[in-house]
Amino acid sequence: MILLVLSRIAIMIPNLIILTLLLFAATTSFLGTPAAIMLGEDASPETIAELNARLGFDQPLMVRYWTWMTDALGGDFGRSYSTQQQVSEMIADALPLTLELALWAIFIAFVGAALVNSVTVFKGVVDRLTAGIGVIGITVPNFFLGLLFIYIFSVQLRLLPTTGWSPWSEGVLEHLRHMILPVMTLTTFYFSSFSLVYKAEYKSVQNNLFVRAARAKGLTETRISYRHILPNSILPLITYAGLSLGQLVGGAVVTETVFSMPGMGRLLVNAISARDFPVMLAVGMVIIVGVMLLNLLADLTYSLVNPLVRHNG
Question: Which of 101, 193, 199, 204 has its CA 20 to 30 A from that of 79?
C-alpha cells in the first residue's frame, strides 16, 4: 500500500508542475497584462509599464511562474486586484461550500446507483425508471436542469428556496433546505452515468459460476444481488467515480452560479469578469490539486476493495 501511494505521488508531482504552468501561462499571457486591464484603454504606455513592473509582470514568464508557485505552495496566493482581500481568505470562505456540494452529490449518486440498480423486486420497473432518469441526466445541461428544478419545486410547489445559501449556524434544517436543489441538480447527471456503468457490470457478473452456485443453494435473489453480485460489480464504478471527479468540480461551478451560492464557482465567475488574475490562478490551482487528491483517494479505495491492485501496486 505504501509503495502504491508513493508511486501515485511521484506521478502527481510532474503533472502538477505541467498543469499549473499551463494555467499560469494561459491566465497571465493570453488575457493581457493586468495593468492594461486595471487602468483601462485611456492609460498611457508609461503608466501601464510602471504598474506592470510593480506587479512583477515585466519579468520573464518562468521567473513569474516560479515566484507564484513557491508562494502558492506556502499558502500565499497574493491579494485580489478587485477587492484587495487576501486570496487565501477568499478561498477558505468559498471552498467548504463547494466541497460539501460535491461530496453530497458523489455520495448520493454512487450509493444510489449501486443500491437502486441491485433491486430484484419489480426489476423491470426499476430499470425503466433509471433509464428515464438517465436520459434526462445525461442529455439535459446542468444549468437548465437547475432552472427546471427551481421552477418546479420553488415557483410552482413553493417547497424549497429558489437560490442562495444558509450556513449551518442558522440551523441544520434551513441549511439542508437550501442544499437540496443544487445537490439534486448535480446528482441527477452522476446517478445516470453511474447507473449505466454499474448495470453493465452487474449483467456481466450475474452470469458467473459463483452466482449460479448461490442460486443452487437456494439463496433468495435479493440476498444474491446484494451479498454476491453487488460487491463484485462495484469495482468499475469506483474507477469511474474517480475519473468523474474532475467533471464534478466543473459541474459544481455551474450549479453554484445558477443557485447564487457563494462557493468556488461564483468566486471564479466573478474573478473572470473582473480579470482578477490572483483569484483565477488560486481557484485553478485548488481545482487541479483537488482533482489529483480525489483521484488518489479513488485509487486507494479501489486497492482496498480489490487485493490484486494492492499486491501488484
Answer: 101
pLDDT digit string, tens, across residues 132-175? 888 888 888 888 888 999 999 999 998 888 888 888 888 899 88
* Burial tier of 126 (Cβ tally within 10 Å: 0-12, 13-18, 19+): middle
Domain that holds residue 261: 94-312
In 3-state terms, what secondary structure has residue 79? strand
Q: Examine the domain organization and report whether 65 and 142 are in the same domain.
A: no
d(CA 114, CA 109): 9
CATH of the domain at 254: 1.10.3720.10
DSSP 83-148: T--BHHHHHHHHHHHHHHHHHHHHHHHHHHHHHHTT--TTHHHHHHHHHHHHHHHHHS-HHHHHHH
261 touches 166 (CB < 8 A): no
Residue tagged 500500500 (cell numbers): 1
Identify whether residues 184 and 47 lie together within a single domain.
no
* 44 three-class SS: coil
User: Nearest 5°: CA angle at 267, between 12 and 185?
Assistant: 85
Q: What is the pLDDT of residues 182-239, one digit of tens each?
A: 999 988 888 988 988 898 888 888 888 888 898 888 888 889 988 888 888 888 888 7
Query: Roughly what angle, to the nearest 10 degrees, separates helices 235-243 and 172-205?
Result: 130
Do both 111 and 219 map to the same domain? yes
Output the nine-digit C-alpha cell for 251: 459541474
C-alpha cell of 166? 444558509
* Locus of grid cell 410547489: 157
Of 27, 62, 87, the last residue of a domain is 87
Domain stop point among 71, 87, 103: 87
The candidate with the shortest Cα–Cα distance to 260, out of 142, 157, 162, 136, is 162
